[in-house]
Amino acid sequence: MNAQPIVTLKKIIFSVFSALALSLIPALAAANVPLAKFEGDMPKELRELMKSVIGETKDEPRSLAQSRRRAETAAQQAISVLRSQGYYGGTVKARIDEFVSDDENAKPKAPQPILVIKIGPVFKFAEATVSYEGETPDISEAVMGEVKLNSGTPAIAAQVVAAELRTVNYLRAHGYPEATARPIKPIVDHDTKTMQVNISLFAGPKTRFGEITQTGTAYIVKSWPRLISPFEEGDTFDERKLNRLAARVISTGVFDGATAVLEDKKISNDDGTVTRNVLLNVEQGAINTVSGEIGFSTTDGSGVDLSYERRNFIGYAQTLTLTSTLKTNQISLGADYNIPYAWRVDRELDISGIISREDTDAFTGERVATSALVTQKITSKFKVSAGLGLEASQFRESGEQVRSYLIDGIGNAEYDARDSILDPVTGYLLNAEFKPTYNLGNEDGLFTTAEISGSAYQRVSKSLVAAGRLQLGTIFGADQATVPLNRRFFAGGGGSVRGFGFQSISPIDADGDPIGGRSISEASAEIRYRGESPFGFAAFVDAGSVTPSDLPDFSDIRYGAGVGLRYYTSFAPIRADIAIPVNKRESDNSFQIYLSIGQAF
Known about the structure:
With 601 residues, this protein is mainly beta. The chain is built from 7 helices and 32 strands. Helix 1 packs across helix 3 and helix 1 crosses helix 5. The longest helix has 21 residues.
């Protein structure tokens, strides 16, 4: 029987993909001369892979010696490709075709390297085995189940490497942090056309988690790492949980980086396992940050937003954000205090407040508000929130100052399957809000606001993204007078129906001033183009309606349409939109311009 060890499969894979990567270097992008031509029957997929790996070069060979060197290089790559795909009996022979002509005036041609390839049959896996250096772990049968190299299936090299990774990862996820694999040297039997694979592993001692010790420059209270840890002291080691601990620290956004590793010291246990403590290294990022944003709109209000953030100042990864707005339609001061892990790892707390002076076409007045909101993460995409809010406001309506003192109950549910917040290209976002409110002011009474909204994004080609948005809302339980002006529905503006002024889509009073409504319906459709440059374009159509009743009335829908320019930065796109009102009213301007950061929705 003709059986022999072959080159380590990792080296074969590395050779194939290294050659493939080299063939894609931009410097060769314009090349059109193959390193070597090849002959022989082979499946289309194998031929394409062979062509990609052997690659191209810029110039024809200048000499016979250079042609031979190219043939030798290409032959080595071709052999690696054949073996990586299970053709271990394949052969590659190189020859050099020289140009010969009886015409003395004929232009000489370069000698051409040619590979004659015979692929032979596809070799199959024989029964795979697993062996251990040192002590055999107590989960060896389960590890064997991770091999998945079924006897009789094609002996693809990449599958062997994948099997090795699966077995090592399984050991590290079930108590064996020192698990490693020794180099695989499969045996190929050319008589039976099979490959015998033995995965040799070193498991090391079974390990349990010990205490978490925090290191690094960040100040963290001692109980916080235990609060966010996905494991308890004494649990069987799981590398995934160790990585999750560091990921939870980083996800707060207040630290520069975090790593979690096992301490080298081992403490022996009576059951034969060892305990190793966890070293959680956390590096503090910038504690204080000041940022600003400038926005321009012909009606939404133009001006500056400033914010100051102070992070992790008492060791719970919390963030205090102070904001200030100075715009043509609003002057405000606000504060928000966020604790990302409030009492448990899947719960978040936000306490916020704002003092604001607002002066829009719809209303003029002042308000002071505060709220506390607890958010519970159900899954990585789905979360629900509940909280309480208080607001005191004074707005001028029909020539009189109307004061309101509001007590809010807040309920919210959100499912976010977008790939990005500021520039999504796939996925969707669903949101529902329910807010019962009691007004203790001049027009006392109970009313409830309910809204549902959704947006969806789909990449239709490499350069085009289709986006859509829908919103429905209602205020029920009391007449319109009980609902303060700033709590009513308005439409129009950069994040609503573009082409119409901010809050201009609304029922109006006897003087022609907008007074808001108790129901709203909006929809938007947008096509976004982004090519190779940082510039992109958009075309959109928006529609919206606001009515005084608590049920939507689609008898007076306003439509806006326009185009936009996008400049894509590493953070978010800068948006410039120009839109016109399709069914324009006498009070509407001929067009509106909007400048901001991020997509419209």
